[in-house]
Design a protein that fits this description.
The structure is a single chain. This protein is mainly alpha-helical. The chain has 4 helices and no strands. The longest helix is centred in the middle third of the chain and has 23 residues.
Length: 79
């Protein structure tokens, strides 16, 4: 999975550069997000991934996601 992540992450700029002249920003982002969700759903079914059980696990995952994203953006922002 790390190789797949790097491939997807590294192509983000290229895809945005090619797609943005042809679509409004929110439309482009909506399509990109929808395709990402579809790809992840296929992978979830293929990998037979287990889903969190209960609200407490969903809460922990939400907090982890927010902190990881905030840490990434906070660490890469300009001062």
């Amino acid at each position: 999975m790390p190789a797949v992540f790097v491939l997807i992450w590294s192509t983000g700029f290229v895809v945005a550069r090619l797609g943005m002249p042809h679509a409004p920003p929110l439309t482009f982002l909506s399509w990109r997000f929808a395709l990402s969700v579809a790809a992840f759903l296929v992978w979830i079914v293929f990998a037979r991934a287990g889903w969190p059980r209960g609200r407490w696990q969903w809460f922990h995952l939400a907090i982890t996601g927010v902190l990881m994203h905030a840490g990434y953006l906070g660490g890469s922002g300009r001062q």
